[in-house]
Amino acid sequence: MQRRDFLKYSATLGVLSALPLWSRPLFAAERPALPIPPLLSADAQGRIALTVQSGETLFGTNKAATWGYNGALLGPALQLRQGQKVTIDIRNTLAEETTVHWHGVEVPGDVDGGPQGIIKAGGSRSVTFTPTQQAATCWFHPHQHGKTGRQVAMGLAGLVLIEDDAIRQLRLPTQWGIDDVPVIVQDKRFTAQGQIDYQLDVMSAAVGWFGDTLLTNGAINPQHAAPRGWLRLRLLNGCNARSLNFSTSDKRPLYVVASDGGLLSEPVKVSELPMLMGERFEVLVDTRDGKPFDIVTLPVQQMGMTVAPFDKPHPVLHIQPLQIAASGTLPDSLAPVPGLPALTGLTQRTLQLSMDPMLDMMGMQALQKKYGDSAMAGMMMGNGQMGHGQMMNMDHGKMMDMDHGQMNHGAQGFDFHNANRINGKAFDMNTPAFAAKKGEYERWVISGEGDMMLHPFHIHGTQFRILSENGKPPAAHRAGWKDTVNVYGARSEVLVRFQHDAPKEHAYMAHCHLLEHEDTGMMLGFTV
């Protein structure tokens, strides 16, 4: 922040303490202030230090063991510059292995941080790369095969902000934590003792791990005091398995200015913004009327995700506008997004996503037994949604009995850890599925046909363009640069191109970003 702006804010508020404490006296006592992750840039030697560590975090009245980067929960926002080389020194102080994957950042395979990039317990790793892509909001998280879901659930996630010259000229809101605000949304479930209750079992392997408590930047129902004007929200769906649908409590519109890979060509006005797991969108909201409102997530049609309290609109973040005027603007045009090249003659690959029928059966029976019919909303049969009147009969006389997520009658040996597949195969770290040629466009068809589950499909090492999403043209705000596409019972097509090498020992990953599907086999490696 410029010194004159700091003085202006401080004088108006009568607060001389360091940011972000400046806004806390304005808050209602029952709501915590929105935690703002520190903004971390490279030092004079071009280095950033990250420590993967354990700690404790207070959720409501309970203190839980959590993990974070440079802190007890979540991590800093790393600010990188296009064209400037950076070295990130990672130290793992956990008692188990982890990796750090740069989700959405286009880097070579040897520094991508996929499941091969293991950092042993007590070990360290340094990665050096030069961001070449346009300005974007990306993120970093573990990618330890079989344990990604648990490590993210324990709190490991942080933002990566790539800056370039073009975005600085747009006069978007840029005051970090004031009118340029990160909003990392996750759900969690806790034990009776207040600890994070993570389990990878047949139910979570089928539908994903989900909770009943929503966190924003690690806080329950926080609020943020923002200057009056245009407010920029950098939204990240950091949930393991829950899709979100953002809106506002008073129906004021959201103006989408950027998707996973950066700026759109122009703002797109929406009343609702569905977001898959791992996706990012930047939106601007007009607060010039001075009226307080909530960012909310609306109910979604996804199996297991309509269980209370998510059967109704659920608050994500309370916004309290101040008397101070904001300085950022909403431009009419943003950044050029090139037209699509000719699609004839391109290499085409088909990736068929599938789940073992036994896992489907067992997982859904466990879900229905634990949560009832309401959890089955969003279940797909053929091309349509399954309503309560068509609910699958899952009584014990027609399906095998379940006990605490395990299958009885001698079937305990069912291997759900390899029950989710791509092209009929569960993930094999040692055998890449194919080789793509650097610099050449390819057309990938990702099919969820014959499957009733939502699959947010993510591809490493690229920002792609969506050609079709579940058989339809992409919505306007999804037509820019993306690294995750919606695959839900139909075919989605993307145009990909890889600009970096990824040799066999450092292959890129392509996988479902419902983390429990990824951990149980719905992933493949490929080389460039």
TrEMBL record:
Keyword Metal-binding recorded: yes
Signal peptide: 1-28
Gene3D superfamilies linked to this entry: Cupredoxins - blue copper proteins
Gene (name only): cueO
One of the Pfam families matching this protein, by short name: Cu-oxidase_3
The protein's assembly and partners: Monomer.
InterPro entries per UniProt: Cu-oxidase-like_N, Cu-oxidase_C, Cu-oxidase_fam, Cu_oxidase_Cu_BS, Cupredoxin, TAT_signal
Enzyme Commission designation: 1.16.3.4
Catalyzed reactions: 4 Cu(+) + O2 + 4 H(+) = 4 Cu(2+) + 2 H2O
Protein name, per record: Multicopper oxidase CueO
Domain Plastocyanin-like: from-to ranges: 55-165, 404-528
GO molecular function terms attached to this record: copper ion binding; oxidoreductase activity
NCBIfam families: PRK10965.1
Keywords: Metal-binding, Oxidoreductase, Signal
